[in-house]
Amino acid sequence: MNHEQIEGFAALFSAVPRLTEIEVRSEGASLRLRRSLTTPLAPLVATQTAPSTAILPVAASSLFVTAEHVGIVQLAPVTVGERVTAGQVLAQIDTMRLLSACKAPVAGKLVSLLVEEGQPVEYGQPLFEITPEEN
User: pTM here?
Assistant: First the structure.
């Protein structure tokens, strides 16, 4: 197991908050990452969204919008700190010339942009972080 592989597992572990433990054994070496859960995780938010949008809870105050397709991301003209509306297109994912819209599942503030224009993305990869508006 090399340094790059270990960093890859750590990045995966950081990107998926509901993942509580990873254990990998390879070539006589082992790696275990375990998250201490002092407070229960928020349940996944059930909303009706575009097929290319998934939601992962980050904390009680924000959520990740993730890719539901493998492809190349084409960003909409949005900037960090901007207010977004529920259903607003944040990006499109080009999968073999089939475009899928990635929409904001809730109204709120765009906290972080986790991908760059033209970047290949994987299924489940976090693309945006949004802090929902309080009602």
Answer: 0.56
What gap in Å lies between CA 38 and CA 73, rounded to an integer?
A: 36
* CA 60 to mean position of chain CA atoms: 15
State how far the Cα of 39 lies from the Cα of 15, in Å rounded to an integer. 18
Q: Kindly report, residue by residue over 85-121, the tens digit of the pLDDT.
A: 999 999 999 998 889 999 999 999 999 999 999 999 8
Beta strands in the chain (DSSP E): 21-26, 29-34, 53-59, 62-67, 71-75, 83-84, 89-95, 98-103, 108-113, 120-121, 126-132
The three-state secondary structure class of 63 is strand
CA distance 72 to 75: 10
Are 91 and 83 a contacting pair, CB within 8 Å?
no
